[in-house]
Amino acid sequence: MTAAMETDRALVDRVAKGDRAAVRLLFMRHHARVYRFVVRQTGSEMMADDIANEVFLELWRQAPSFEGRSEVSTWLLGIARFKALSSLRKKKEDWIDDDDAAQVPDSADTPEVVTMKEDKGAALRRFVDALPEEHRTVIDLAYYHGQSVTEIGEVLGIPVATVKTRMFYARKKLGEALKSAGYDRGWP
């Protein structure tokens, strides 16, 4: 069997036995997806780069305990989400007082100008970004990372019914946002 045809689970079994080449193969297969997911979670490419690398170190450490109850990609995204949330909690926010904040000029375009500048896909991405974190995460995992409802539940550690409810409300909010921005169709 060639390396390209070897399943992710077989590679994790090899990693559990200390095979560094298997880690490299899994890294090549999944690093971009993990990185993009963490960028979406943290908003920081630098933080995402560090966290994505940590995910594969964690893969090396945890491979012997991988039980195969989920897909390897789902497992890796779960590790990535935990690490991203932990990093965000540790991250110190720069403090600015109210007087300093009032002096910062608001150079943002009005919603109408922004909408005129963007195509529907870019506008939709903006509306997704404006969703509450719990809704944004399920949309991100489903539509930008191709995860199923079951896999999303595994990554987030929530029941499938909760995933479905969050998807319903997120889609509803996105449809309303698109409609109010002048797009004739809601959710495609």
TrEMBL record:
Family of this protein: Belongs to the sigma-70 factor family. ECF subfamily.
Domain RNA polymerase sigma-70 region: 26-92
InterPro entries named among the record's database cross-references: RNA_pol_sigma-70-like, RNA_pol_sigma-70_dom, RNA_pol_sigma70_r2, RNA_pol_sigma70_r4_t2, RNA_pol_sigma_r2, RNA_pol_sigma_r3/r4-like, WH-like_DNA-bd_sf
Name by which UniProt lists this protein: Sigma-70 family RNA polymerase sigma factor
PANTHER family: BLR3042 PROTEIN (PTHR43133:SF32), RNA POLYMERASE ECF-TYPE SIGMA FACTO (PTHR43133)
NCBIfam families for the chain: PRK12515.1 (NF009168), sigma70-ECF (TIGR02937)
Keyword Transcription regulation: yes
Ranges of residues in domain RNA polymerase sigma factor 70 region 4 type: 123-174
Keywords: Sigma factor, Transcription, Transcription regulation
Species in which this protein is naturally found: Mesorhizobium abyssinicae
